[in-house]
Design brief:
234 residues; mainly beta; six-stranded antiparallel beta sheet
Length: 234
């Protein structure tokens, strides 16, 4: 009987530590597409993972971004997704990204994570930043992503902003975005706005293969299960 109790506790520990009723993973492993009006066709890149919605702010010109399948700088799998702003005209470049996930249960709580690294160029004088949010339903549109942006008179308390004041942009390390979200529909959309920008407009933007790259990897959605905390109950 004592041996049976020990084995039961071990099984519970394994289930609590690793099992999820819902688990979705996207390693950004491709195939890649070269999105029209976003990808810069003067650059021989791979494009962006086809499962993602890719666009840009509507006041920008077309074909402003380089996108490659990165084989070295990554957190898992064979590739990460890399992106960079290309031509400079002394204006910011806002890249819009979204990933829809289906099969969720309304009323349940989920954890959404994405690994990221954002370099700040060789001059280290950028004001790069990222804004992200998770919303219910299909939000894969330019208008929906634009709505998460924080600016004067447009407060978005659910949007998370990552900027250089935090010290994570430009440190050469991967970090993880995280959002806990209770679904009200059977799908959610993760949305992000990535701004490539420079403090000194006279210096423009990083050119291709310069150090001003964004890397994304390992997008995961799981049910936010609560681990067992008091084993005396078992």
């Amino acid at each position: 009987m004592k041996r049976l109790l020990i084995l039961s506790a071990a099984a519970l520990l394994t289930a609590a530590g690793s099992a999820h009723a819902f688990e979705f993973k996207d390693g950004l492993e491709g195939p890649w597409v070269q999105p029209e009006k976003v990808f810069n066709f003067a650059f021989e890149g791979d494009g962006f993972d086809e499962d993602w919605f890719v666009s840009n702010v509507n006041w920008m010109g077309d074909n402003q971004f380089d996108m490659i399948a990165e084989e070295v700088i990554k957190t898992e799998g064979d590739y990460s997704q890399a992106a960079n702003a290309y031509w400079a005209n002394n204006a910011p470049r806002d890249l819009y990204l979204a990933r829809k996930v289906d099969g969720l249960e309304p009323g349940k709580t989920y954890k959404v994570t994405l690994d990221w690294r954002f370099d700040d160029g060789v001059s280290a004088e950028t004001t790069n930043h990222i804004m992200y949010d998770v919303r219910d339903g299909d939000q894969q549109s330019q208008a929906a992503i634009a709505d998460i942006e924080i600016y004067g008179g447009h407060d978005r308390p659910n949007t998370t902003r990552i900027d250089e004041a935090e010290g994570t942009i430009g440190d050469g390390q991967f970090h993880t975005m995280e959002r806990i979200h209770t679904a009200s529909e059977s799908s959610i959309t993760f949305m992000m706005i990535v701004r490539f920008c420079h403090d000194d407009p006279s210096k423009g933007f990083a050119e291709p293969f310069d150090a001003n790259w964004l890397y994304l990897d390992n997008f995961v959605v799981t049910d936010a299960a609560t681990p067992v905390r008091d084993w005396a109950l078992y």
